[in-house]
Amino acid sequence: MAQLHAISSCSSSRISLLSSAQAEWPVRRKKISCVKRPCSFQEAGAVSSGFLGHLSIHHSLHQAPSSRTKAILNVLSSEKDGGLTSPGTTENGRGLRGQLKKVVLAYSGGLDTSVIVPWLRENYGCDVVCFTADVGQGDMEMEGLERKAKASGACQLVVKDLKEEFVRDFIFPCLRAGAVYERKYLLGTSMARPVIAKAMVDVAKEVGADAVAHGCTGKGNDQVRFELTFFALNPELNVVAPWREWDIKGREDAIEYAKKHNVPVPVSKKSIYSRDRNLWHLSHEGDILEDPANEPKKEMYMMTVDPEDAPNQPEYVEIGIVAGIPVSLNGKDLSPASLLSALNELGGQHGIGRVDMVENRLVGMKSRGVYETPGGTILYAAVRELESLTLDRETMQFKDTIALKYAELVYAGRWFDPLRESMDAFMENITKTTTGSVTLKLYKGSVTVVSRRSPSSLYREDISSFENGDIYNQADAAGFIRLYGLPTRVRSMLERGI
């Protein structure tokens, strides 16, 4: 169970509100929660901001004849034109775009999410609960979040430590499956989004929210990963995606909006790269990386030293594995998050885990990214190597085949898809005997396997030896080759008219 930390609370009152009339359903007066007074931010009601663009959120203010129909409308309502109410409406505490009671916002404390807080309140007349998930992004990114959230106008901050859950329930299943997207990408961001979105759904239930919001752009993969998780776990939640709705086009627009609404602009220096960090990896995009012909700058990397500057002496590490899941480092049992953290440190010191790739985004475009995954690279090498002892040929080949589909599902945000869950059950079953230890040598950016052991090893020295033995008679190979090569022999005979 993740640790929950809630800060302050939102005050609200009950008012009567008439839903906008739509042709397909009869409407009637219903009570919903609305902001009584804003949370130390601005006066009740909404003021004009100029950001009155098209609204495309999932909403459900129409009174459906059944709860089932209501749920369906919540999921599909974004396909309809218009919004919750007509733009500009401010009566009865509604925002410029409509009315929501309480919104849980995925919050980082940066400029974008700081601006989203007042935008939500202005446009939907709602309380905003900021939610931050600790997935190992580092103490610097977690610093001062309460102050930032309150200054932006949020009435509550909820922080959950998800590191152990993230590694145990999301990273390690992908590791066991051998899931790698497009030959290189170890799915660092792809695995983090569903665990965050899952926690947001939980928090929405805890605080009585009727909507969730995120700060993902309309060009990326993360919007899909967040929203498919919301759909899977609570299809009745409204979803707000400001970057697909507002007129803010970039950093300067966001700063201007923040100043207009008395939101302190975060003073941290704007990185020239777009980065995402968690316990599994650190990604870099943007700036010179947008041209695939450019070599990354040496100073860009943050988790790993340049392999050229790594120690001149190799370091050996032993990974203990039980049923396809890493459990120990150098003979010491560690929790999932602790094990990964320790390997990140070791791998980073030796320049392990750098990947530079051009990938195909889910939305259709190609993008270039550079990833640092030191601990993950070590673990992937260890688990795959142990499987060389414990899996037979047909099983290994089939596992590798469906691992490609597994990775594709995770990349596309379909973590809670029944297909991925079924594939995971298969992976869990066939790796029951993948237990043992693997020793690896870390040296100047490379990971080399030097030893592997398993009590369930299918390798038999008495069979594999070049010496003759009782189990394998080399003379038997002659008949096998004649039978195995029969199709080749028949084709050759046909071509020669024999």
Automatic annotation (TrEMBL):
Gene Ontology annotations for the cellular component aspect, listed alphabetically: cytoplasm
Gene Ontology molecular function terms on file: argininosuccinate synthase activity; ATP binding
Arginosuccinate synthase-like N-terminal domain boundaries: 102-264
EC number per UniProt: 6.3.4.5
Pathway note: Amino-acid biosynthesis; L-arginine biosynthesis; L-arginine from L-ornithine and carbamoyl phosphate: step 2/3
Signal sequence coordinates: none
Major enzyme class: ligase
Tree of life domain: Eukaryota
UniProt GO BP: argininosuccinate metabolic process; L-arginine biosynthetic process; urea cycle
Record field: transmembrane: none
Arginosuccinate synthase C-terminal domain span: 273-490
Gene3D superfamilies attached to this UniProt entry: Argininosuccinate synthetase, chain A, domain 2, HUPs, Single helix bin
Keywords: Amino-acid biosynthesis, Arginine biosynthesis, ATP-binding, Ligase, Nucleotide-binding
Subunit and interaction comment: Homotetramer.
Protein name as annotated: argininosuccinate synthase
Protein source organism: Dioscorea cayennensis subsp. rotundata
